[in-house]
Amino acid sequence: MTQVEASGRRERKKAATRARIIEEATELFRARGYQATTIEDITEAADVAPRTFYSYFDAKVDVALAQFEEWSDRHYEAMAARPLGETPVEMAEGALRELAQLGYVTGERLRDEHGVPYPPIASAVVLSETEPEVAGRVFQVLMGFQSRMTELFRQRLGYPVGAIEPRILAASISATWFVAVYGFGDVCASEVDPPSLDELGLTGMRAYSRGLDRLWEGRLGGTP
Predict the structure, then answer these.
(1) Residues 6+ positions from 170 with CB-CB distance below 8 Å
(2) I want to staple 166 with a disulfide (CB 3.0 to 4.6 A). Which of 102, 153, 156, 184 is the partner?
(3) Is the pLDDT of residue 3 over 90?
(4) Domains of the chain by range and CATH?
Protein backbone atom coordinates (compact mmCIF):
# COMPACT_ATOMS: atom_id res chain seq x y z
CA MET A 1 0.00 0.00 0.00
CA THR A 2 1.39 3.38 -1.01
CA GLN A 3 1.62 6.33 1.36
CA VAL A 4 -1.17 8.09 -0.56
CA GLU A 5 -3.41 5.02 -0.34
CA ALA A 6 -2.71 4.66 3.38
CA SER A 7 -3.50 8.32 3.96
CA GLY A 8 -6.74 7.99 2.03
CA ARG A 9 -7.73 4.95 4.05
CA ARG A 10 -7.08 6.76 7.32
CA GLU A 11 -9.18 9.71 6.21
CA ARG A 12 -12.07 7.40 5.24
CA LYS A 13 -11.91 5.67 8.63
CA LYS A 14 -11.90 9.01 10.42
CA ALA A 15 -14.87 10.22 8.38
CA ALA A 16 -16.76 6.99 9.13
CA THR A 17 -16.05 7.31 12.85
CA ARG A 18 -17.21 10.92 12.91
CA ALA A 19 -20.38 10.00 11.01
CA ARG A 20 -21.09 7.16 13.45
CA ILE A 21 -20.73 9.47 16.45
CA ILE A 22 -23.14 11.97 14.87
CA GLU A 23 -25.61 9.22 13.96
CA GLU A 24 -25.65 7.71 17.45
CA ALA A 25 -25.87 11.12 19.10
CA THR A 26 -28.76 12.03 16.82
CA GLU A 27 -30.72 8.97 17.90
CA LEU A 28 -30.01 9.63 21.56
CA PHE A 29 -31.03 13.28 21.33
CA ARG A 30 -34.28 12.32 19.62
CA ALA A 31 -35.05 9.56 22.12
CA ARG A 32 -33.92 11.22 25.37
CA GLY A 33 -33.55 14.91 24.62
CA TYR A 34 -30.44 17.06 24.54
CA GLN A 35 -30.09 17.72 28.26
CA ALA A 36 -30.61 14.09 29.29
CA THR A 37 -27.95 12.80 26.88
CA THR A 38 -24.36 12.77 28.11
CA ILE A 39 -21.13 12.50 26.19
CA GLU A 40 -20.60 9.17 27.93
CA ASP A 41 -23.93 7.98 26.51
CA ILE A 42 -22.82 9.01 23.03
CA THR A 43 -19.40 7.36 23.21
CA GLU A 44 -20.91 4.13 24.53
CA ALA A 45 -23.52 4.04 21.77
CA ALA A 46 -20.90 4.82 19.10
CA ASP A 47 -18.44 2.32 20.66
CA VAL A 48 -15.61 4.83 20.87
CA ALA A 49 -13.45 6.08 23.73
CA PRO A 50 -14.12 9.55 25.19
CA ARG A 51 -10.75 10.73 23.86
CA THR A 52 -11.91 9.72 20.37
CA PHE A 53 -15.02 11.85 20.77
CA TYR A 54 -12.91 14.83 21.77
CA SER A 55 -10.66 14.38 18.76
CA TYR A 56 -13.69 15.25 16.60
CA PHE A 57 -15.81 17.51 18.81
CA ASP A 58 -15.02 19.98 21.57
CA ALA A 59 -18.39 19.67 23.33
CA LYS A 60 -21.84 18.10 23.18
CA VAL A 61 -23.27 21.11 21.37
CA ASP A 62 -20.79 20.54 18.54
CA VAL A 63 -22.12 17.08 17.77
CA ALA A 64 -25.72 18.18 18.36
CA LEU A 65 -25.48 20.86 15.67
CA ALA A 66 -22.97 19.19 13.34
CA GLN A 67 -25.70 18.28 10.87
CA PHE A 68 -27.14 21.78 10.98
CA GLU A 69 -23.74 23.36 10.32
CA GLU A 70 -23.10 20.99 7.41
CA TRP A 71 -26.58 21.66 6.03
CA SER A 72 -25.92 25.40 6.26
CA ASP A 73 -22.67 25.06 4.29
CA ARG A 74 -24.21 22.83 1.62
CA HIS A 75 -27.26 25.11 1.39
CA TYR A 76 -25.09 28.13 0.66
CA GLU A 77 -23.02 26.22 -1.92
CA ALA A 78 -26.19 25.04 -3.66
CA MET A 79 -27.62 28.57 -3.70
CA ALA A 80 -24.37 29.98 -5.10
CA ALA A 81 -24.39 27.38 -7.88
CA ARG A 82 -27.87 28.28 -9.13
CA PRO A 83 -28.11 29.83 -12.62
CA LEU A 84 -28.06 33.58 -13.07
CA GLY A 85 -31.49 35.09 -13.58
CA GLU A 86 -33.33 32.91 -11.06
CA THR A 87 -35.38 34.67 -8.40
CA PRO A 88 -34.65 33.96 -4.70
CA VAL A 89 -37.60 31.55 -4.56
CA GLU A 90 -36.36 29.67 -7.63
CA MET A 91 -32.87 29.54 -6.16
CA ALA A 92 -34.23 28.16 -2.88
CA GLU A 93 -36.36 25.55 -4.63
CA GLY A 94 -33.41 24.34 -6.70
CA ALA A 95 -31.01 24.37 -3.76
CA LEU A 96 -33.35 22.34 -1.55
CA ARG A 97 -33.85 19.79 -4.35
CA GLU A 98 -30.08 19.40 -4.57
CA LEU A 99 -29.78 19.00 -0.80
CA ALA A 100 -32.41 16.25 -0.94
CA GLN A 101 -30.35 14.46 -3.58
CA LEU A 102 -27.33 14.69 -1.27
CA GLY A 103 -29.29 12.85 1.41
CA TYR A 104 -30.48 15.67 3.68
CA VAL A 105 -33.91 14.91 5.13
CA THR A 106 -35.31 18.41 5.65
CA GLY A 107 -37.58 17.77 2.68
CA GLU A 108 -39.00 14.53 4.10
CA ARG A 109 -42.08 14.17 6.27
CA LEU A 110 -40.38 12.29 9.08
CA ARG A 111 -42.33 10.07 11.48
CA ASP A 112 -41.30 8.01 14.48
CA GLU A 113 -42.20 4.36 15.16
CA HIS A 114 -45.64 5.47 16.36
CA GLY A 115 -46.33 7.53 13.25
CA VAL A 116 -45.87 10.85 15.03
CA PRO A 117 -44.25 13.59 12.89
CA TYR A 118 -40.94 15.03 14.07
CA PRO A 119 -38.41 17.51 12.66
CA PRO A 120 -34.76 16.77 11.78
CA ILE A 121 -32.59 16.64 14.90
CA ALA A 122 -30.92 20.06 14.60
CA SER A 123 -34.34 21.66 14.37
CA ALA A 124 -35.61 19.50 17.23
CA VAL A 125 -32.78 20.82 19.41
CA VAL A 126 -33.74 24.39 18.57
CA LEU A 127 -37.39 23.72 19.30
CA SER A 128 -36.92 21.89 22.58
CA GLU A 129 -33.94 23.52 24.26
CA THR A 130 -33.27 26.93 25.76
CA GLU A 131 -29.65 26.41 26.76
CA PRO A 132 -27.50 29.43 25.87
CA GLU A 133 -24.79 27.27 24.25
CA VAL A 134 -27.30 25.80 21.80
CA ALA A 135 -29.05 29.08 21.06
CA GLY A 136 -25.72 30.89 20.70
CA ARG A 137 -24.30 28.36 18.26
CA VAL A 138 -27.46 28.35 16.14
CA PHE A 139 -27.32 32.14 15.96
CA GLN A 140 -23.64 32.07 14.93
CA VAL A 141 -24.27 29.55 12.16
CA LEU A 142 -27.33 31.35 10.90
CA MET A 143 -25.64 34.75 10.87
CA GLY A 144 -22.65 33.28 9.04
CA PHE A 145 -25.00 31.85 6.42
CA GLN A 146 -26.83 35.16 6.12
CA SER A 147 -23.55 37.06 5.71
CA ARG A 148 -22.44 34.79 2.87
CA MET A 149 -25.85 35.06 1.20
CA THR A 150 -25.69 38.86 1.47
CA GLU A 151 -22.40 38.93 -0.42
CA LEU A 152 -23.71 36.42 -2.98
CA PHE A 153 -26.75 38.58 -3.74
CA ARG A 154 -24.66 41.78 -3.75
CA GLN A 155 -22.25 40.39 -6.34
CA ARG A 156 -24.93 38.71 -8.43
CA LEU A 157 -27.00 41.89 -8.73
CA GLY A 158 -24.18 44.40 -8.78
CA TYR A 159 -25.16 46.29 -5.66
CA PRO A 160 -22.44 48.50 -4.14
CA VAL A 161 -20.72 47.53 -0.90
CA GLY A 162 -22.91 48.53 2.02
CA ALA A 163 -26.19 48.43 0.11
CA ILE A 164 -29.13 47.35 2.27
CA GLU A 165 -31.04 45.47 -0.43
CA PRO A 166 -28.79 42.35 -0.49
CA ARG A 167 -29.14 42.14 3.30
CA ILE A 168 -32.92 42.18 2.96
CA LEU A 169 -32.80 39.40 0.40
CA ALA A 170 -30.45 37.31 2.58
CA ALA A 171 -32.47 37.96 5.72
CA SER A 172 -35.55 36.57 4.00
CA ILE A 173 -33.82 33.19 3.69
CA SER A 174 -32.94 33.17 7.39
CA ALA A 175 -36.39 34.40 8.37
CA THR A 176 -38.21 31.68 6.47
CA TRP A 177 -36.02 29.05 8.15
CA PHE A 178 -37.06 30.41 11.54
CA VAL A 179 -40.69 30.47 10.42
CA ALA A 180 -40.44 26.83 9.32
CA VAL A 181 -38.65 25.57 12.43
CA TYR A 182 -40.64 27.41 15.05
CA GLY A 183 -43.91 26.90 13.23
CA PHE A 184 -43.37 23.18 12.79
CA GLY A 185 -44.70 22.25 16.23
CA ASP A 186 -47.89 24.26 15.74
CA VAL A 187 -48.45 22.74 12.30
CA CYS A 188 -47.90 19.22 13.65
CA ALA A 189 -50.47 19.86 16.37
CA SER A 190 -53.10 21.05 13.90
CA GLU A 191 -52.58 18.81 10.84
CA VAL A 192 -52.72 15.05 10.37
CA ASP A 193 -50.05 15.09 7.65
CA PRO A 194 -47.92 18.21 8.29
CA PRO A 195 -45.52 19.43 5.60
CA SER A 196 -41.76 19.05 5.86
CA LEU A 197 -39.45 21.84 6.97
CA ASP A 198 -38.51 22.49 3.34
CA GLU A 199 -42.17 22.77 2.36
CA LEU A 200 -42.84 25.17 5.22
CA GLY A 201 -39.75 27.21 4.34
CA LEU A 202 -40.74 27.50 0.68
CA THR A 203 -44.23 28.57 1.72
CA GLY A 204 -42.59 31.36 3.69
CA MET A 205 -40.35 32.29 0.77
CA ARG A 206 -43.35 32.52 -1.55
CA ALA A 207 -45.09 34.77 0.95
CA TYR A 208 -42.05 37.04 0.86
CA SER A 209 -41.63 36.75 -2.90
CA ARG A 210 -43.70 39.66 -4.11
CA GLY A 211 -41.65 42.21 -2.23
CA LEU A 212 -38.38 40.36 -2.87
CA ASP A 213 -39.04 40.08 -6.58
CA ARG A 214 -39.49 43.84 -6.81
CA LEU A 215 -36.01 44.32 -5.30
CA TRP A 216 -34.58 41.62 -7.54
CA GLU A 217 -36.28 42.39 -10.84
CA GLY A 218 -36.05 46.14 -10.39
CA ARG A 219 -32.26 45.87 -10.12
CA LEU A 220 -31.95 43.53 -13.10
CA GLY A 221 -34.19 45.81 -15.16
CA GLY A 222 -32.29 48.96 -14.16
CA THR A 223 -35.21 50.42 -12.22
CA PRO A 224 -34.13 52.55 -9.23
Answers:
(1) 146, 147, 149, 150, 152, 153
(2) 153
(3) no
(4) 3-59 (1.10.10.60), 65-220 (1.10.357)
